[in-house]
Amino acid sequence: MRDHGVSTEEAMEKFQEMAEIAWKDLNEGILRPTPVSMKILTRILNLARIMGVIYNHNQDGYTHPEKVLKPHIMALFVDSIKI
To answer: What is the top-level taxon of the source organism (predicted)?
Structure first.
């Protein structure tokens, strides 16, 4: 950041923009015909999705899973769904 003379906020905005473009590319790519098996493509897309959950909102879910991942795990496996 210092080399390019930008603030932390500007750098974070640029990274967010790059992530949005990458998501668009992934989603478009999975819809195009390809010789690669759909099962393999789905696994790759799911890995990207889980990385988005683990590192969402500038939080490190790998280093601090109790803060970031625990609520997701509780919602998925423990909390009941009210109908």
So the answer is: Eukaryota
Q: For residue 31, what are its two tokens?
A: 């819809």
Tell me which residue has tokens 């909390």: 79
Q: Per the structure block, which two tokens stand in for 68?
A: 């970031």
45, 38 contact by CB (below 8 A) = no
pLDDT along the chain (83 residues), means of 10: 82 88 90 90 90 79 85 85 74
CB 36 within 8 A of CB 82: no
Whether residue 55 contacts residue 61, with contact meaning beta carbons closer than 8 Å, is answered with yes
Q: What is the pTM of this model?
A: 0.63
63/40 Cα distance (integer angstroms): 28
